[in-house]
Amino acid sequence: MVRNSATAKNTQLSRALPRRGTREKNHPAAVAHERRLSEVRALQLGRLLRHQRVRVVVNPDGDHVDLLYEQGGGRGDRYGDSDTLRPIMIRVGRNARDEDVLAEGGPRGIFGRYNDAIAKLRQLRIRVIAIAGRGPLTESLLEAHRTLSRLDELVRRRRAKYMPNGVARLAVLRHEISFLEARHERWLPIILAAEPVVAPRAARVSRRIPEGPRPAAPEHAAGQVDASELGSPKG
Questions:
Q1: Which of 22, 72, 90, 203 lies at a C-alpha separation of 20 to 30 Å from 149?
Q2: What is the average per-residue pLDDT within 140-146?
Q3: Phi, psi of 199, deg, nearest 5
């Protein structure tokens, strides 16, 4: 009886599960199973990213990591620019590793690094424009001045080409960060060498006259009484 009941149970399971073949993935049982696995994975990632304030969507196939973003700092933006990026959703394949999802501080951390790289180049732009106002530029400074003067246009063009429609693949976003940071590392020493050397500010000399010994109180003439020595008037 035990063997017969086990055989009957296996028969029921075999009927419920899809057969091996080309249509296995389209079987309703397989679709429901994949959906449950994706939901479980989304819950796991949601716990890991609970402090990121981003929505998590898990696709049943692949190991990709897509970051959906919006433009504009919004309230409390520490950069103060209207074109900074902020993640709003992370869309990953079910086989994506936790290390990739949480890399560099998660979605907010990696977008913060991207925004920082742009902000640093904008600071270099201010400095190279100041250098250009003092005289002719060398070839390296001219290249930096030409590129940094069109920095905002360059960022928008690359964003439209490599991160279109508000979606950035994780590998692409890392490449864009490396591209921006490499320009900063290349031009920073050139700009530092061209800037005038500012002498350290001399220590401020206090103009306050040192206090000497206080002069002695003048002696009262005979018969005079100091007002401070008088008590309260008596009625």
A1: 72
A2: 93
A3: -70, 145
Single-letter residue type at 64: H
CA separation for the pair 83, 11 (Å, rounded):
60
What is the pLDDT at residue 5? 45
pLDDT at 185 over 50: yes
The pTM for the full model equals 0.66
- Of 172, 24, 165, 37, residue with least CA distance to 89: 165
Strands of the sheet containing 167-169, edge to edge, are 55-59, 85-93, 65-71, 167-169
What pLDDT, on a 0 to 100 scale, did the predictor assign at position 149? 94
d(CA 148, CA 127): 10
Q: Where are the domains of the chain?
A: 26-194
pLDDT exceeds 70 at position 223: no
| Residue 129 near residue 149, CB atoms below 8 Å | yes
Structure tokens at 184: 């900063």
Report CA-CA distances (Å) from 58 to 35, 39, 95: 9, 7, 9
Element (H, E) at 57: strand 55-59
Give how far Cα 60 sits from Cα of 24, 32, 107, Å. Answer: 15, 11, 21
List all residues 6 or more positions away from 191 whose beta carbon is below 8 Å from its beta carbon. 124, 127, 128, 131, 141, 144
